[in-house]
């Protein structure tokens, strides 16, 4: 218990310090892990297991939002394959140059070793990127979906490599896992009966870790991929979004163990730190390669650069690949410490960059020529909202109700803006006018046709930061109409008002007022 208290205390301090310097808490958790390792802290039993569970739940929640069909799109699979080939080639050349320069730990390594290290550095971090996307409410935006698709294919490549390197072919019984495709109906039926609340969360954990992680592992496949697959199989259930939200806090707490564990791979020496920092020089090249490849795939410059910035980091899979290389004698133990440091440092650098990712992507667009709008990817073209009175941005339960009320009760011409493709299809089927777009996109208003009549913009997205960013985008675009927004907390409401929102509605306060009105109405009528 004392060891657990020590780890939690150091992790908390690290997270707070990172927040004070405006970095994500996970950077502080990484620093805490290195501090614990350098101080010779006693090993915490079960830390690796908790970390595994956290990653599995993260991938399961990704699966709940995943459209598997998107993986076969050229902008995803072709970009992934092309980028990995380029990244490995550049990595071998970069490491070879360091060897020629006589840099410690690299000099004397053969081509096989350099190729393995270059492969390890070609992956981007699924855990880190998803956390960045979730914190910015961008997991279902176009660039977010592309980034997640690329990460999934990278993970499949990594798992395949590990299976070959470890000489552990999948069991012949692995073919039976295909039965989960028709068998998901059984899971749907069970899910529909468990209801909401903690029982739904327990069901999600059980599916992610049971038939997901551990069954796949037992059959010689990656447990992480298994958790992702089970999430994807359940993604069509109406309560998929609710389950994802119910697992969020549980998953985030357990992921602290993952970030702590990265820092415990060994005590770094000055030469390890120096080489790890030098390896960071390849990250701008990797991010730029993503942007150029996606731009050639007919995506807008902003979308391409946002994706490249999000993927501009090294991966936890790189540590695993090098660990396997150490086991089979391809690389020295020192490389495990170096790659762990490089991964942690890349997280810190990428977190700082992505904190201003929208602004940086807008600035970088000048380095690529614009494309003819008619030749852009269908998901990235000009948005035509027609001659409308109001826009409602974010069509969850609050946004869709607002949209219907403004249309039916007040006679306004209303269009909803939503970036979740499944939600857009569902609402269009229910008779709503909806365009699929990202309301936080700095170029959103520049892409909108016939927007001059819009008198009201309603910011109804579930995340405060998303509403705040959208408000800033409206102001930057010179929007002169009225802006109304929702908020969950008093300080969020105050911040929206400070930034120029004309009306802010506290969700819980408004619900309480409505409940009081209904209660008084019942009391007065006696019904």
UniProtKB/TrEMBL annotation:
<keyword id="KW-0812">Transmembrane</keyword>
<feature type="transmembrane region" description="Helical">
    <location>
        <begin position="171"/>
        <end position="191"/>
    </location>
</feature>
<keyword id="KW-0813">Transport</keyword>
<feature type="transmembrane region" description="Helical">
    <location>
        <begin position="273"/>
        <end position="297"/>
    </location>
</feature>
<dbReference type="Pfam" id="PF02254">
    <property type="entry name" value="TrkA_N"/>
</dbReference>
<keyword id="KW-1133">Transmembrane helix</keyword>
<feature type="transmembrane region" description="Helical">
    <location>
        <begin position="76"/>
        <end position="105"/>
    </location>
</feature>
<feature type="transmembrane region" description="Helical">
    <location>
        <begin position="198"/>
        <end position="215"/>
    </location>
</feature>
<feature type="transmembrane region" description="Helical">
    <location>
        <begin position="335"/>
        <end position="353"/>
    </location>
</feature>
<dbReference type="InterPro" id="IPR006153">
    <property type="entry name" value="Cation/H_exchanger_TM"/>
</dbReference>
<feature type="transmembrane region" description="Helical">
    <location>
        <begin position="47"/>
        <end position="64"/>
    </location>
</feature>
<dbReference type="InterPro" id="IPR003148">
    <property type="entry name" value="RCK_N"/>
</dbReference>
<keyword id="KW-0472">Membrane</keyword>
<feature type="transmembrane region" description="Helical">
    <location>
        <begin position="142"/>
        <end position="165"/>
    </location>
</feature>
<comment type="similarity">
    <text>Belongs to the monovalent cation:proton antiporter 2 (CPA2) transporter (TC 2.A.37) family.</text>
</comment>
<dbReference type="Pfam" id="PF00999">
    <property type="entry name" value="Na_H_Exchanger"/>
</dbReference>
<dbReference type="InterPro" id="IPR036291">
    <property type="entry name" value="NAD(P)-bd_dom_sf"/>
</dbReference>
<feature type="transmembrane region" description="Helical">
    <location>
        <begin position="111"/>
        <end position="130"/>
    </location>
</feature>
<feature type="domain" description="RCK N-terminal">
    <location>
        <begin position="387"/>
        <end position="505"/>
    </location>
</feature>
<dbReference type="InterPro" id="IPR038770">
    <property type="entry name" value="Na+/solute_symporter_sf"/>
</dbReference>
<feature type="transmembrane region" description="Helical">
    <location>
        <begin position="304"/>
        <end position="323"/>
    </location>
</feature>
<protein>
    <submittedName>
        <fullName>Cation:proton antiporter family protein</fullName>
    </submittedName>
</protein>
